[in-house]
Amino acid sequence: MDARAYIEAIAAELSRVRGAGLFLSASDAKLALGWHAAAVPLTTVLEAVRDGKRLKARKSARGAGEPAISLSAIAPTIEARSSSKRGKAVRVVTGRDSLRDELLAAAAVSGLRARAAWIALANDAETLLATSADAYWTRTIAALRAALPELSRAERQTLVKALRERMPRRPGSMTHRRFRRAQALHLLKTASSLFSLPPAPFLL
């Protein structure tokens, strides 16, 4: 499972138990990315979120203050359970600038088109992901569109040919809006595989 699907599944479960919108704080988004990088099973995270909900309900019934359900609050439980299943400690990197630094390093590669757009995205990535995965991918697609005019004519022709060969037709059950979004994400992955545009770390 890629990082986008992993984070969205966690956000959806938190939304369900909180009764609130799909939103992760910046610290929670960093934790989720760290767990994905450390290969913590998604089921482990989701089970801990549900257990946190049950614990909150019991404390509320006893008249205790209701602790907020967040990934930061249940992180020790998640990491302990994952470590127990593996038989070794899970090390999760959640440094303040870990994702930012990785993306800035990727944006420093030689010959990157529209470098300023990728640097701006790297600086904003954690804030965007804390808002929603969709916010991050919208900015990533915008950065790619800024870079496309810098491709040579031959490169653009190669990209168009690859898109036509790989992009399936719109399923009848899919709306035109969703299909356009799928096309944009497909463009992103294809350009990255052909020209490292964007560099792989931006695909999370």
Please give a structural write-up.
With 204 residues, the protein is an all-alpha fold. The protein folds into two domains: 3-86; 98-203, no CATH class. 69% of the residues lie in helices and 0% in strands. It contains nine helices and no strands. Helix 6 (115-131) packs antiparallel against helix 7 and helix 7 packs across helix 9. The chain is globular and about 60 Å long.
Features:
204 residues; mainly alpha; 69% helix; 0% strand
- What is the overall number of helices? 9
Shape: globular
- Characterize the largest beta sheet: strand count, sense, and whether it forms a barrel: none
Q: What letter string, H or E per element, gives the SSE order?
A: HHHHHHHHH
Unreliable parts: 57-67, 93-97
Termini separation: 11 Å
Q: Averaged pLDDT, please?
A: 80
Task: Please compute the radius of gyration using only Cα atoms.
Answer: 20 Å
Annotate the secondary structure layout.
Layout: H1 3-18, H2 26-37, H3 42-61, H4 71-86, H5 98-107, H6 115-131, H7 133-147, H8 153-166, H9 176-195
Helix pairs in contact: 1-2, 1-3, 2-4, 2-6, 3-4, 5-6, 6-7, 7-9, 8-9
Quick overview of this protein structure:
With 204 residues, the chain is mainly alpha-helical. The chain contains nine helices and no strands. Helix content is 69%, strand content 0%.
